[in-house]
Structures are given as structure tokens and as C-alpha cells.
Amino acid sequence: MRWQKGGVAICLGLIWLGWGQLSQAADEPQAREIVDRVARLYISQSSIATVEMQITKENWHRKILMQFWSLGESNILVRVRSPQEDAGAAILKVGNQTWCYLPKANRTVRMPASMMLTPWMGSDFTLNDLVKQSRLTDDYDIAISSEGQRDGVAVSEYTLTPKPEAAVVWDKIILQVRQADRMPVWQRYYDEDGKLVRELTFSEYKTASGRLIPTRLVMQSMDKDGKTVVEQTIITYENIVFDGPISEETFSRRNLKP
Amino acid sequence: MNVLLLMKIGWRNLWRNPRGTLLTALALGLGLTLLLVSLGLLDGSHEQMVRNGVRFASGHVVIQARGYQDTGSLELLLPAGVVSSTDGFLHSEALKPVVRGVSPRLLASGLLSSAANADGVRIMGVIPQAERAVSLIPQRIVEGNYLRDDQASGVIIGADLARKLAVKIGGKVVLMTQAVPQSDTEATDEAGGEMQSTLLRVSGIFRTGIQAIDAHVIQLPLPETQALLGVPDRVTQIAVLLDREGDSLMVTRSLRKQLMGVPVEILPWRESMPTMARMFLLDEAFNYVMNGVVLAMVGLGILNTILMRVLERRYEFGLCSALGLRPVQLAVMIIGESLALTAISLVLGLVLGLSLQYYFATAGLDLRWFFHSSLPTTLVFDPIIYSRLSLTRIASSVVIVFMMAIFISFYPAFKAARTELPGALKVF
Amino acid sequence: MSGQLLRLAWRNLWRNPRRTLIAMAAIGLGYAMLLFVACLMAGLRHQMIETGTGLLLSDVEVQTQGYYPERPIDQTLGGPNGTDVSALVAVIAADPRVQAASPRVYGYGLVSATHQSVGVQLLGVVPDQEQRVTALQTQMVKGSYLTGRMPKGVVMGDKLAVTIGVEVGSEIVLLTTAADGSMGNDRYTVVGMFHTGLDAMDQGLVLMSLATVQDLLRLPPAGIHEVGIKLHDDGITAATATAAALEAQLSKTLPVQVHAWPELAPDLAGYVQFNRRITFILFFIFFLLAVMGIVNTMLMAIIERTHEFGMLMAVGMRPVQVVGLIVAEAASLAGASLVLGAALGAPLLWYLQVHGLNLGGDRGAVSLAGVVVGPLWYGRQDFTADAQAALGLAVVALVSALYPALRAARFRPTEALRKV
Q: CA-based Rg of chain A, rounded to a whole angstrom?
């Protein structure tokens, strides 16, 4: 499949951010705790979510509506609701195996594991990002880099530097967090030349199942000169339920077909 | 008169006109020289062509797991222990002079990402020292360095890939691979292994000119690759480069005998690279035909020379006849002359030919010398041809030219022998 | 005076017919051989190229700017709205250098059946047009090539078929990211399998009809990625120049980039260049051989006639005229020999080009999955080489006559007459 810019890179960044775990390494404990909290924003025993994804590319623009179910770390089901041509498509991942139901062909096919790492539907996110599949990595050293005000709100910035052996492509990630409720505001990814390559922005904070989470995420790519480009992907959580009851039956192949 | 005396007279005839004789000998000798040089170049260039081709792939002979050639399945690895047993064998006294390089490789596919981009890649886990002797990639480094023998971690990528990922020497890239499932069943269960990610730093960038390689092939140290894929001590193939293409079948057979009973397939390059073989088949046929043409031309030259010599001496032969020499004796004398002349020419030709051949065999013929041309394409291959002439070739060339000269001289000899007396003695 | 000289020269030649005929035979045969070699060499080069390009790569490819080498799906000729495909193909095909042209669409996707799913390249073509440009249809080992009758039929490599577990008649599913980002997917039937010996194709290519791929990729009928071109036989070695010319011409109405096979397959180009250089060297060597024969002939002929020249000078011919006479003889000899050589060579050349050299038997039988590759080697006319050889030989003949001629002219008649 053709690779869009940094789809996988994003995956790694997000793995750290939303859906990984941090170790108890020796850096500022408070900083680590805060960043850790942000990382665990979307993690739970189980979840059901409805997500809208808007993809803007040079030549086209699409809006996709999907539903996600997850149980533990290894059961995921994604179903596409709209638009029409893709409605009914579904992906099921159980353990190491992945299947995909294709609506037009009316067939279920096996997917190679690498499919989870390809940009989903041409967006800037991979399925891995979206279904919160991740491996544990403790890849970064964390330090608080500044504190200040943004639109009248007190925020702190944390700089994350990759550990020497960490399998990440970034040279640096800076995360801005609201001091009051520890909500992330934006996350910026820099390459080894110090250039900003992508920016993930969080907004529309809402409470779901007792948690406060940002429900709108915008991933913006930069071109070689650091200017924003047309390509971007916006993810909106229309609703999400954490730790609700989900039966194992949901994650069966029979359930793949609509 | 007995034959020996006639021969002696024949010999002395030659030296009555030393300059003419030497000129003729030179002319004939040059024929042999050119024959040797062109044979050497033809053989050498064909050898070079094949070598260039196989060095981008899997060498003259390849050892791989049974079924790999047909399926290309990356799960098919060589049984453990094959590398060490063949290594010893290929470096043994018997095969050492024939083998130029042995490179065990682990092949896999994966995803290489940088901050800017990502792409699917074909991974080659190699031992740098061994790979250098077999593949051309180590010689095509344009930036940075090839993998060092003591380097534990690092990656070499192609120029097209480097551009797409926007990385420089020392830059970070992350390689994602799936561990190879090691099941014994034929089941093509898509369980696969776990995905592994590794951080790598770009040690060097190569450019071969072949887009498929420059955009997708990467090389890592073998131990690192084995660790990534969870298959310590295993490899996919062993590529063997030989000194001479002609030994491919012999080495294949020896290896098959050595590894009898082991579930491997050992293939000479013609079987592992059939399309290349087809293209080279034409080149081989070309060589054959050219050999024939050169021989024919040399033969023509000899014919011409000898005929000329004989024809111009009608007066002399007439005289001999008049003095009592019988036709047969005259013929023998002429043949004796031809033999002697041919012998001298052959010596001259051999000396000149072998020295030229030696020069081309060591210094090589640099094709760029002739053609600083207009080529839009970068030269993918080594432009220097090393002449190659086996002892058999030399011997057979000499023998053939000698036989040709002798046979060719029969006709004029007997023609001359039947010279009609009164006519031949006319001064004009 | 020169007329007389020439007639004298010609008659001199025939005073000793045997010697003259032998010399003519030598030079003539030498020339005929050079013709033979030139013809074979040109044929070899050509066939090497054919072998390399014939299957999938065409001689020249026309694409939109920026398409090559990444091949993004949305970069169609003529931009997002595409272009009038049949008109474009017709314009290209009308060019006298072009033998045939064929529109193509490329894609990438996952092919899936009972076993694994595998990433493959998709290629959509119009069968009857494509068959005039490339030769994949000759490599079929099972089933049949694409026909118009089954729009959702596909053709794939035999190794791929084994990997995913299909036979002719099996159903497969293709999944891809379409040009508008949606999940293109559909079911297709395997109608045939090919074996080329090239892994990249046998393991990684699925061929289908143009319209079907456009459907899958959500491209309009006007959206194609490339026009593949087959040039006329003698234009293949000049493909780069033709590509540049086509680019200049087509760019007037459409932003295009035109690539020729040396750029698309630099390794093949490398082989051809290699071969060309070797053959040049060999030709040179053969030329030397021919030259030697001539020089020898000339030298002998003239040195043996010292007596005769002495006579001529004794009866009043001036040295300059003697030289002139000798040169004229050499010229006539050379001319006559070349004509003889051409006459001898012509039937041989004709045979080479029409019937070819059959190198079958022990050398020949390379069979790739049942398809025997008969190394029938066709020659090709190489007029430039022929003319160059003729000129070269003539010059050599004249020059080699000059030295002894000058020597002969400097003899004093009395000395010359004494030579018996």
C-alpha cells in the first residue's frame, strides 16, 4: 500500500501518548506522572466508541463514521457506518490474527499483521492508532520545559527526549498540558534536524464514563519548511463508553458481517 | 632425394628472402595474435557480464531451503548447521581456488520509517566481510560507509529510499518486522509472529542504478537481523560467487553430494535466474559465432598469404623441375617451407598474443576509454573487462591455426608441383 | 591520361588472372565477413533489448509529470479529470516511429483467497491493444490470457497462485485504497496464470482489464496512468531520442513525461552498452585481420613485379606515372573486390535476417516452464557499419599499395631489370 506521510510515525507517537504505559524511570516524578495520566486517557478494560474521521488531502475530502469495540488489549472490532461505499466494512483483531470484511465483495479476508500499520483509508492514522493496539515501550525521558499562560489558562510544557535505544523516529516531542485538569492541549513532533513535522491538537473536552477526555483530535502535517500543508486528519469521538459490559461474542467472525 | 633433405632445402628457401619471409611470418603471426586477443576478450567479457548479473542477486550458485525457488516464502529457512558445514567445505583445499566468496544471508520484509515517511523494504541480514566478496552493493556506497565487520547495529539503504525517507547518514530510522513463525507444518496460518520495532542509524547510502534495489533493499548485520526475527543461527540462503562461471555446474554437483539428505535446494545461476540466463544465452551464442568468424578470417589470411608466395615463384619452381626435381619432391619441399613458415609465425604470434593477453588479463580493458560518450544512463556495471584465456583455448587455437596452415598449403603445393615446364621458365 | 591509366591498370590486373582473382577473393571474402558480423551484432543487440523489455516494460512510457517513479494512484494523465484516452492513444500511434500504443492503469492492493493475503501490483490493460505492445500473453502456462468476454477475469503469476492457494477458475478478492481514499474491493475470477521466470512478476503482479481496475480504484474512464509504446524494430536503439521528441510534441497539449527503456531499466541498458562496446572492439579486430590480408596481397603483388616496373620505366614511363598506375590498379582491385564481397554477402545477409541462425540443439533448449526459448538469432541490416567497412577497406588497399609503389618508382630501370 502506498504510504502517506508519516502514518506509521504517527502510530508510534500515539502509541506512546494515548495507549502505552510509561516506566518508573528516574526523571521528575511529577512530570512523569502527569504525562502518564495523559497517556492513559483512552485506556480501559473495555470500551465502545463512535468516531468520526475527517480526512483532507490535496485532491479530496472524506468523512468516515466508525464504531469501535475493544476488550482487554487483544480484542478489537471496528465497523464502518458511513459513507455509503464503505458502509459495512469491518475489521476484527483477536490476538495475533486480523480479518477484514469487505462489503462490496461480500467476503471476509485475512489481513497480514502489517495492515494494522498502514494508514487507514488514506488518513494520517493507522489502524493500530485507532484500535489502541500497542506494545509496551518506555521510550522517553521526560522533563518539564516551561510554564505559562495560553488564552488565560495556565499550561505546562513537557519535553520528551527518546532514550538512546528507543525505537522511535522522533528527536523530540513537546507536550502542552493544562495545569488545572491535566488535559493535553497539543503535542508537537520534531525530527533530528529540529524541524516540526507534525502537530496533534486536542480540544472539546468532555466527560465520558466519569473521565474527562479531549474528544477532538486534529493531526496536522508540516512540509519541509515547517509550514502547514493541506493534508490533515480530524478525529472526533462522538461518544465513548469505558468499562461497559461487552460480550466475547462481539469479537467473533460471525459478527464481522453486518 | 629423401624427405629430410627436401625439408632442409625448404627451410633454406625461406631465408633466401629474409625480409619477405619475416613479413609473411609476421602477417600470419598477427593472425594468431588477433585470434588470441579476441578470444580472450570475448571470454572475459562474457564472464564479466555474468558476474555483474549474479552479483546483484544470489551469486553463481545458491543454497536455499527446499521449495524456496518456487514459492519465495520468507518462512523457508535453511536448516540449522548448513552454514557451518558448507563453509568448511567451500573453503577446503579442493574448492578454494574456484570459489571467490561465500555469503550467508537472512532475507525478510518489513517497514522502515523515518520522521518524514515510511516504506516497505526487503531486508538482507549479512556478514559484511562475506557480503563484500559476493555482492556489488558494498561497492556502490555513495555516502557514509558500508557495514563494518565489528558493527553490531546499523543499516545500509539505497539512495532512492534515503530520498523518500529524507534521512541522512547517522539519521534515525525505525524498522518494523514480524518474527518468523517456526512451524513445521505446511499450514499457511496467518498467525505470524509479533511485530518488532528496532531503532537503527543509517551507516551508509548506496546507489546501484537499479530502481528496485535502490528503493527497497536494506542491509543489516546478520546477528541483528536474526535477533529481530527471532531465528538465531538461521539464514535464508547462501550465495556463492565463483572465479569462473564455467565452474557453476561442478560446484553445484559437489555441494549436492556434500549436502545429500538435507532438505535444501542447490541451484546454479541459470536455474535461479532464468531470465538472466536467457539473455546471456544470446551472448554465449554470439561468442561461438564470433570465434568461428575469427578463425575463418585467419584462415583466409593464411590462404591468401601462402597462395601468393607460391604463385610468385613459378619461375623458380620451373627451374627446379627442369633440374630434375620430381613433382612429388617439389610438393614436399613446398610443404616443408610452409611448415617452417607456420612454425615461425606461430611462435611470433604466440609471443605477441600472450603478452597482449597478459596485459589485458591483469590491467584489463577499460571500456570507458573508447567511449566517453553520450550515454544517458549511469553505468550500472563494472566497465573494465579482464581478458580470460584458458590453457585449453590457447592450445586449441595454436593447433587449429597450425592445421589450417598445413592443409591450406597442400593445394598450392601440388598445384606448383605440376608446373608446366616451358611456360614457367618464361621470364615474364 | 588518367582514363588511359585506368584502362591500363585494369588490363594489368587481368594479365595475371589467377593472382588477381586470389587477391579479389581475399578482399572480397574479408568484406563479406565484415558484413556478416555487422549484421549479427546488430541483431544481437536488438534481441537483447527485446528479451528485456518485451514482457511488461514497453519501449517507451508516457505518463503525467511527477508520476514516475513513485506511481501515486491519483496522478492520472491530464490531471484529476483525466484525458480523452482513445484520442491520446491514437495521436501517439499515428507517429511513424510508433508501432503500437496501449493505455494502462496501475494500482497496489492485497489479493486474498483461501490462504494468505499478499500485497501485489495491479495492472489494468486493454487486452488487444496491450498484446501489440508487450508479450506477456506468450508466457501463459495455465488457462488463458485476458479476453473481452470476462470483464472480471484476472491473470496472475503462477507463484502467486501457489502462495494464495488458487487455481484457474478460483475466486479471489482484491482490496485496495482507491483514488478517493475509500476501500476499493471486489471479487474476481482467475482465468489464467503466467510464468516469466522473473520473481517480481510471478509473485507480485495481477493483470486485469482496464475498465475493471478503474472501477476498483474509483477512477473515471478518462483516468489512466500511462500509455505504453512499442517502437518499430529499428527504432529501439534510438528510443531515448524518440521519447524526447514525443515529450516535446505531446507537451503542447498535455503535461507529460516520457521515459524510454534505458531509463526505466538501466541494468538492461548497461548490458546493451557493454555488448555494444565489446562488439565495436571485435569489429575493429576483424577489420585488422581483413586489413592484414590486403596489405600482404598488395605488398607481394608489387614486390614481385619490380622487373616489370623496371621495364616500363626503361621504355619511358615516368616514376610518377608508375606510382599512378599502381595506385589505379589497387583502386580497381579494391573496387572489384568490394563488389564481389557485397555480392557474396548479400544472400547470406538475406538468410540471416529472414530465417535467422538457429542455434538450437545442445545450446538451445532452455525451457522455462514448458515454453522453449529457441535462440533463433536474427540478423539486422546495419548499413552504417557496412559502408564504414567498405570505405575502410578501400583506404587500406590504397595505402598499402602506396609504399611499395613509391619504392618501385625510385628504382633505377637498370636495377629493376636485373631482378629475375
A: 18
- pTM passes above 0.90: no
Contact C297 B308 (CB under 8 A): yes
From chain B, the residues in CB contact with C25 under 8 A are 304
Q: Shortest CA distance to B342 belongs to which of B6, B14, B2? A: B14
CB contact under 8 A, B111 and A166: no
Least CB–CB distance from A59: residue in C80, C112, C174: C80
Distance CA C62, CA C102 (A): 10
A122 in contact with C, Cβ within 8 Å:
yes
**Measured CA distances, B387 to B44, B53, B342 (Å):** 4, 18, 26
- Per-residue pLDDT, B371: 55
Q: What is the rounded CA–CA span in Å between residue C393 and residue C335? A: 10
Residue A35: partners with Cβ closer than 8 Å, 6 or more residues away: A22, A142, A158, A160, A175, A177
C-alpha cell at A38: 495523559
**Cell numbers given for B298:** 585467419
- The ranges of chain C with pLDDT < 70 are 1, 290, 293-294, 296-297, 300-301, 303, 357-382, 411-413, 415-420
Contact A74/B at CB under 8 A: no
Return d(Cα B218, Cα B344) in angstroms, integer: 59
User: Rounded CA gap, A1 and C55, in Å?
Assistant: 24
For chain B, what percent of residues have pLDDT higher than 90? Answer: 24
Say whether both C78 and C135 belong to one domain: yes
C336 & C395 share domain: yes
Residues C38 and C65 in one domain: no
Give the domain range for residue C92. 58-264
The ipTM estimated for the assembled molecules is: 0.78
CB contacts under 8 A, C 145-174 vs A, are 173-174
- The pLDDT tens digits for B255-287 are 999 888 888 999 999 888 877 787 777 777 777
**A5 interface with C at CB cutoff 8 Å:** no
Give the three cell numbers for residue A169.
523516529
| d(C-alpha B409, C-alpha B336), whole Å | 10
CB contact under 8 A, C185 and A103: yes
Q: For C211-237, how does the pLDDT look when each residue is reduced to its tens digit (9 = 90+)? A: 999 999 989 999 999 999 988 877 777
Cell of B402: 597450425
Distance CA C292, CA C289 (A): 5
Q: Where are the domains of chain A?
A: 7-255
Q: Give the chain A residue whose CA is nearest to the CA of C107.
A: A1
CA distance linking residue C342 with residue A59, whole number of Å? 64
CATH pick for A7-255 out of 2.50.20.10, 3.30.1490.100, 3.30.470.20, 3.30.70.270: 2.50.20.10
The answer for A 225-254 residues in CB contact with B (under 8 A) is none
C216 with C178: CB under 8 angstroms?
Answer: yes
What averages of pLDDT result for each successive group of 10 residues across chain A (258 residues)? 37 35 47 77 84 87 90 85 88 85 88 75 75 54 86 88 86 89 90 89 90 90 79 89 86 83
Q: C342's torsion region: left (phi>0), alpha (psi -120 to 50) or beta?
A: alpha
* C-beta separation of A166 from A187 below 8 A: no
Please answer whether residues A172 and A163 qualify as being in contact, where contact means their C-beta atoms are separated by less than 8 angstroms.
no
d(CA C257, CA C253): 12
The whole-number average pLDDT for the span B327-338 is: 79
C-alpha cell at B290: 564470433
Q: Does B211 touch chain C (CB under 8 A)?
A: yes
Residues C85, C32: one domain?
A: no
Nearest residue of chain C to residue A56 (CA atoms): C181
Final residue belonging to a domain, choices C264, C295, C319: C264
Can you tell me whether residue B95 is helix, strand or coil?
coil
List of chains touching B (3+ CB pairs within 8 A): A, C
